[in-house]
Amino acid sequence: MSLFNDLHGTAYLLHHGGLHTGTQFASPQGPLDVCAAAYAITEGNLPDAFYEDEVTSIELIEASERAMAAIRAISHALDTAPCATDGGPDYIEHVSNWAATPPIGATQPPTTSEVIGRILRAADSIARDHTLPPHHHAA
Fold first, then answer.
1. Cα(37)–Cα(112) distance, integer angstroms
2. DSSP per-residue codes, the chain
3. Rounded Cα distance, 111 and 117, in Å
4. Beta partners for residue 89, in sequence order
5. Neighbours of 87 (CB within 10 A)
6. pTM score > 0.70 for this model?
7. Would you state the pLDDT for residue 137?
8. CA distances from 111 to 7, 11, 60, 64, 132 (A)
């Protein structure tokens, strides 16, 4: 799978299962946090910890190179920068908080459609950046 496909899969999962913005990374009713959706797509499963243990969930996500690549790509497509945690950018918090928190000057967080749109724009940006022909300088 490619990062492009992982992002499209994440968007698909959120479209069909719903976006979870509450406590933990997943709702027993089915909706998933953006980072949980990226993990589920890239790893092919969703451990029970995502429903009940935030610390373990974060550890599982951080241990998945593919999930973190997708989350970093989404983070880079946002209008804000991630905050630093333990000396490095906290991409999981950045993406989760973005999807669950109203932006400055707004009263509502982004809609599920807006979240999906941003994920798809991140995928399109990656596809565009990786398919451009090499730049040739005139002699």
1. 13
2. --HHHHHHHHHHHHHHH-B--SSSSB-TTS-B-HHHHHHHHHHS---THHHH-HHHHHHHHHH-HHHHHHHHHHHHTSSSPPPEETTEE-HHHHHHHHHHSPPTT-SSPPPHHHHHHHHHHHHHHHHHHHHSPPP----
3. 10
4. 84
5. 5
6. yes
7. 42
8. 18, 13, 26, 27, 32
Instruction: Take residue 78 and report the two structure tokens written for it.
Output: 């946002």
Q: Which residue has the tokens 């790893």?
A: 43
Query: Contact, 41 vs 6, CB < 8 A?
Result: yes
Angle between helices 65-76 and 91-100 (to 10 degrees): 60
Give yes or no for residue 93 having a pLDDT over 90.
yes
Residue 1 pLDDT grade (very low, low, confident, very high; cuts 50, 70, 90): low
Return the residue matching tokens 């996500």: 61
Give the tens place of pLDDT for each residue, 14-66. Answer: 999 999 999 999 999 999 999 999 999 999 999 999 999 999 999 999 999 99
CB 20 within 8 A of CB 26: yes
